[in-house]
Amino acid sequence: MFSQVIESTMPLVIDESKSTIRTRFTPPKGFSWMNEQPGSFSEFLNNFPLHPPNFPVRDFTGIPINQQQHHVAILRIDVGEKNLQQCADAWIRLYAEYLWLNKRFDEIGFEFTSGQFFPWNDFKNGIRTKELKNKVSFTNTGNVDDSYENFQKYLELIFRYAGTISLDRESIPIKNNAAIRTGDFLIKPGSPGHSVIIVGVARNISGKKLYLLAESFMPAQDIHVLVNHRNPQLSPWYELDVDVPETVTAKYIFKPTSIKRFHNLK
After folding, report:
1. pLDDT the model gives residue 8
2. Which end of the chain is more exposed for a tag (fewer CB within 10 A), N or C?
3. pLDDT tens, 202-257?
4. How does 123-160 read in b/e, with b if 16+ C-beta sit within 10 Å?
């Protein structure tokens, strides 16, 4: 099991002049950024653009949230104009955007909390949801639209019907520390539950890893890289261990510790 504290007298470096996750955050002394597979979801997250330093976390209305002390950076991606893209929905958004960017359209699809699987291909071909007595059914409008604008409407629908319960159910567990990688996420299913995602991994010569974590929250708000309040000397980096009974992040305690991965990123 990993130690809980890494002693360091060296100041951690955050280069505020840099504009991506990988370039802005320098790992602690003795650690180096892990090289991710080219074209992977991990590399996509490492190179994700950031807003300028001191940019506030805003909610879906564009208003800064009250608590601004829990983040060190904000990902440059919109949160939408509705109170929908919350915690687990944000990882669905990032993964869907990654698949779209790489034209892997046939892989875009997510489960509803009710258990129904709804792929992008169905939505673009005109399939829509219909609610009756709290049950979701599908109807075919016959309207085909494969535009990016329609893709965003599809994601809004997914955010409405998916969440931590469905994402937990359709993801695969990470059972050993050596397997943890960028793009994996801590998750506690529930209504409400919560989830944070790994957006960067550093490693030392002995193989020990450190992690950068990001989250969205309720109400829907900007995705932000988290401060490590429990270990300020290490912040914003975190230690993770799949075997510990709980993991404390900036605003949430995951109990038990459950780290998972999108099922088709085996």
Report:
1. 41
2. C
3. 999 999 999 999 999 999 999 999 999 999 999 999 999 999 999 999 999 999 99
4. bbeebeeeeeeeebeeeeeeeeeeeeeebeebbebbbe
Token pair listed for 230: 């429990």
- Helix 88-101 / helix 148-161 crossing angle, nearest 10 deg: 150
Q: Is the dihedral of CA 116, 117, 123, 125 positive or negative?
A: negative
List the beta bridge partners of residue 118: 110
What's the helix, strand, coil split of the chain in %, to 5? 20, 25, 50
Distance between CA atoms of residues 213 and 177, nearest Å: 16
- Secondary structure (3-state) at 188: strand
Distances (CA, A) of 198 to 81, 114, 167: 25, 27, 16
DSSP 83-121: TT--THHHHHHHHHHHHHHTT-GGG-EEE-TTS-EEEHH
Q: For residue range 74-107, list pLDDT tens digits in order.
A: 999 999 999 999 999 999 999 999 999 999 999 9
Top pLDDT among 7 and 132 is at: 132
From the centroid of its chain, how far is CA 79?
A: 13
Query: Hey, what are 96's tokens?
Result: 């869907």
pTM, two decimal places = 0.91
Higher per-residue pLDDT: 139 or 13: 139
* Secondary structure class of 185 (helix, strand, coil): strand
Rg (CA), the chain: 19
